[in-house]
Write a structure and sequence with these properties.
The chain is α/β, with parallel strands linked by helices and 820 residues long. Among the domains are: 171 residues, Aldolase class I (TIM Barrel, Alpha-Beta Barrel); 139 residues, no CATH class; 105 residues, no CATH class. The chain has 25 helices and 23 strands. It has a nine-stranded mixed sheet with strand order 6-5-4-3-2-1-7-8-9. A five-stranded mixed sheet has the order 17-18-19-21-20, covered by helices on one side. Strands 10-13-14-15 form a four-stranded antiparallel sheet. The protein is globular, with a radius of gyration of 28 Å. The termini are far apart. This is Radical SAM core domain-containing protein. GO terms for molecular function: iron-sulfur cluster binding; metal ion binding; oxidoreductase activity. It comes from Micromonospora siamensis. Pfam families: Radical_SAM. Keywords: Iron, Iron-sulfur, Metal-binding, S-adenosyl-L-methionine.
């Protein structure tokens, strides 16, 4: 650690890398005097290409995919950076975005972002960025005088009006979903109150306050006689922010809060920094801000053409930033607040002679700021900014809020406290804490559902990149602008995502209507919206399927035309016409989606959609009327049983379970049920006539669905861990995620049997409760001892364990009271 980092050590295995910065343009249209790229020790930009060539973009994307597949990463994060990325222009930017989407998204989730000064941002570029689901951060240092202190053109002119114009564009409803937030570089000569007010006025979803880059060789400017000016400046904003009720997340403050571990920002905390930079020439580099240390500080002597990500990840300068506490100097390791500040930003530790083996040059400020945060009264309950939350309507079809993979693995985030204060939108931290109890209220289930919808939208955008523009795509995007609820209803159908995944995994060699899901989706959305439209829809296996609506048998033809008009829709195919209207007897061949009469919600019996065959178990053929009616009645009764026995779980079923798929009968295994990670909102069950049994199966499988959706948001398990664990309910050793899934389902099943054990003559129920309790406890203990959990995962499992202990204690007390 003491000194510059040497060559890559082939014997060291780095952690997987999930974050990448692509320097797509190496020049800038501003001349900011605090820019680390042009104004600091490193001047390698002078010898680099002006822009990243298409072959370099493709090579980088292929390396990212190669690494993500090898490490089963569920999502990767790519930030377009510079220089100024908007200097690419609309055509150049479109080429880069199309390459990244087309190459990466068939294999893993892609979270695309861009950091810009905003000078060149216009409506055309906003539409482009929205279409490719790019979240945009804009650099602004506050009010005009503060911004003009550093962020100026080379001729000395202000950039403040241009940056504010860009922010005004991003606040518009059609672009609001692309607004990621504001990055503000701190200058203690600016008035912190005015800076804070100016940033809030732009209604950002998030604010990043960045300490100016400095080292021990080139320390930050400090007013004479002021030992901690940066802590004083930031502390003043923090006190106002708390007094205002935390109206917008400020990442530095959230990361330094009591109980936090610095997650969400590389500037503080001990979390591994799994990030690599790709320069315009394809060179792999370490974190970009290392350029403040010395010329060539960020270099690795590796590039995307000849070296995989794994090799770059083994570079000592990358590996040391993944070592947590062990990678810090002795002074930091002995510090009582090291878990929160994490030694500060890595480049800020540089000093000639001792290298990075030092505390941050901001050490005294960080300690003082933490003390200020700890001493600040909690203040008013947190509330969202007036317009800084989600847009008023669902985003345009290609947009992805919280990207995650369509594959059945996990995805990232961090940890926090439990239920958020009243009025604050639930974040992933509070969501994980709430779900760790085994339950989950309407807000938690809504967040899971919205995240799953965002994944489907991202997959849809990926499919559009593969299939190209079409009339169905244009209709769907038009409807999303004019009738967003209708589009959301269709895209939230559980089997839209599996359909997209299947097609993206194995695109048809010649395309064709059977390969394209868009016409049926657009047609169904038009019907829900009641909008006049005509859509050519495919006939698959002799039928037209309209997700959420039903299935029309159309034998002997391959094409059909669906027309939506007032009072319903009609389908023409093979010289025949079928009319479907509300309140009118259905025409021959039309099977509307059947629904169970469940009180308080709607549950479809899904036995027509061919994409339902995604459970690894044979699904039943389309049910006849008698069988469908019997299943509907059993479902309704089982729903009532769930509400009777475990009301909290009954409410989670109400909030999220939307479809039940009948499995084919199997006399050798009559009690079968399944969940598919890609089909959120649905479970599959074998024919069960007993509502008491079906209630247990529904609760069990819905636990899997909830946890799967959470794993698309929060990284609970180290995907690279080789640890296998034996559990009581399986004969084969299981990976950590499989153990966690089983334990989470059994936590709820324990609760069901515990409730039934309170009844008279309930010996069987008591035995079941004890068995599932023991299975769950032993599995959770094994997870905690196994070393395969992330920090957030350990917190989640400990909370599960505490919940189980509470329920076990209650059970013992009840048994004693009952004389058992």
């Amino acid at each position: 650690m003491a000194g510059r980092h040497g060559a890559t050590d082939p014997g060291v295995s780095g952690r997987p890398i999930s974050q990448y910065v692509l320097k797509v343009h190496s020049r800038c249209d501003l001349s900011c005097d605090h820019c680390y790229v042009y104004q600091e020790a490193d001047q390698t930009w002078r010898t680099r290409p002006v822009r990243m060539a298409p072959e370099t973009v493709r090579a980088a994307a292929l390396r990212i995919v190669e690494h993500a597949r090898a490490h089963r990463l569920p999502v990767v994060h790519v930030v377009l950076h510079g220089g100024e990325p908007l200097l690419l222009g609309a055509d150049g930017l479109r080429q880069v975005l199309a390459e990244l989407r087309a190459t990466i998204t068939p294999w893993t989730g892609l979270d695309l972002r861009m950091q810009t000064n905003g000078v060149l941002l216009d409506e055309e570029l906003c539409r482009l960025l929205a279409a490719y689901d790019v979240r945009v951060g804009v650099s602004l240092d506050g009010h005009r005088a503060a911004n003009d202190r550093h962020r100026r053109f080379a001729h000395g002119g202000t950039s403040h009006p241009q940056a504010r114009r860009a922010l005004a564009l991003l606040r518009r409803p059609e672009f609001r979903g692309s607004y990621a937030g504001i990055l503000c570089t701190v200058d203690v000569r600016n008035d912190p109150d005015r800076v804070y007010a100016a940033l809030l006025a732009e209604e950002p979803p998030r604010i990043d306050l960045l300490l100016p880059h400095a080292t021990w060789d080139r320390p930050p400017w400090r007013p004479p006689g002021t030992p901690t000016p940066y802590a004083d400046w930031l502390g003043r904003i923090h006190r106002r922010w708390v007094a205002d009720g935390r109206p917008v997340p400020i990442r530095l403050f959230d990361a330094l809060a009591p109980g936090a571990t610095g997650g969400g920002t590389e500037a503080v905390g001990l979390a591994p920094a799994d990030l690599l930079v790709v320069e315009t020439d394809g060179s792999w580099e370490q974190v970009d801000s290392l350029k403040v240390a010395f010329h060539g500080a960020a270099g690795t002597d590796l590039d995307v053409f000849g070296h995989p990500v794994d090799e770059a990840a083994r570079h000592p300068g990358v590996a040391v930033r993944q070592e947590g506490l062990a990678g810090l100097c002795a002074t930091c390791r002995a510090c009582p607040v090291v878990a929160r500040c994490g030694g500060g930003l890595y480049p800020h530790r540089w000093r000639s002679g001792s290298g990075f083996d030092n505390p941050s040059v901001y050490c005294s400020d960080l300690r003082a700021l933490i003390a200020t945060i700890d001493a600040t009264p909690p203040g008013a309950a947190a509330r969202p900014p007036q317009r800084a939350g989600a847009p008023a309507k669902p985003p345009a079809v290609p947009r992805q809020r919280e990207p995650a993979s369509h594959r059945p693995e996990a995805a990232p985030r961090r940890q926090s406290a439990a239920t958020p204060p009243v009025g604050e939108p639930m974040g992933t931290d509070a969501l994980a804490d709430e779900l760790a109890t085994g339950h989950g209220g309407p807000e938690a289930l809504d967040l899971l559902a919205r995240t799953q919808l965002a994944i489907t939208r991202a997959l849809l955008a990926s499919w559009r990149d593969v299939a190209g523009d079409s009339a169905a795509w244009r209709l769907l995007t038009d409807l999303d602008a004019t009738a967003p609820e209708a589009v959301a209803t269709v895209l939230a159908h559980p089997f839209v995502r599996p359909a997209l995944v299947r097609r993206l995994d194995r695109p048809a060699p010649t395309g064709g209507p059977d390969a394209d899901p868009l016409p049926a989706l657009a047609a169904a959305a038009a019907v829900h919206a009641g909008v006049e439209a005509a859509v050519a829809v495919p006939v698959r296996a002799g039928a037209v399927l309209l997700p959420t609506l039903g299935r029309l048998s159309v034998p002997g033809t391959k094409d059909a035309l669906l027309t939506v008009a007032a009072g319903g829709f009609r389908i023409r195919a093979g010289g025949q016409e079928w009319r479907v209207s509300p309140g009118v007897a259905p025409p021959p061949g039309w099977q509307p989606t059947r629904r169970a009469p469940v009180t308080g919600t709607t549950v479809d019996i899904e036995d027509t959609d061919p994409e339902r065959d995604c459970y690894g178990e044979p699904v039943a053929s389309q049910l006849d009327g008698a069988a469908a009616g019997a299943l509907a009645r059993t479902l309704a009764a089982a729903w009532r049983v769930a509400h009777r026995d475990v009301p909290a779980h009954g409410r989670t079923l109400d909030a999220g379970l939307r479809a039940v798929v009948p499995l084919a009968p199997d006399p050798t295994a009559p009690l079968r049920s399944a969940t598919a990670r890609q089909a959120f909102g649905a479970v599959a069950v074998a024919p069960v006539t007993d509502p008491e049994t079906l209630a247990v199966l529904l609760v069990h499988e819905w636990q899997h669905a909830k946890l799967g959706a959470l794993l698309d948001l929060v990284d609970l398990v180290d995907s690279a861990s080789p640890v296998l664990t034996r559990v009581a309910w399986r004969t084969d050793p299981r990976p950590a995620e499989g153990v966690l899934q089983g334990a989470y389902a059994h936590l709820a099943v324990t609760e069901v049997w515990r409730a039934r054990a309170r009844r008279p003559d309930a010996d069987v129920a008591r035995r079941h409760a004890a068995r599932y309790r023991d299975w769950t406890r032993d599995a959770l203990d094994a997870l905690l001892a196994g070393g395969a959990l992330t920090g957030t995962g350990e917190r989640f499992v400990r909370r599960m364990r505490d919940t189980l202990e509470d329920r076990m204690r209650d059970t013992v007390e009840e048994s004693r009271a009952g004389g058992d």
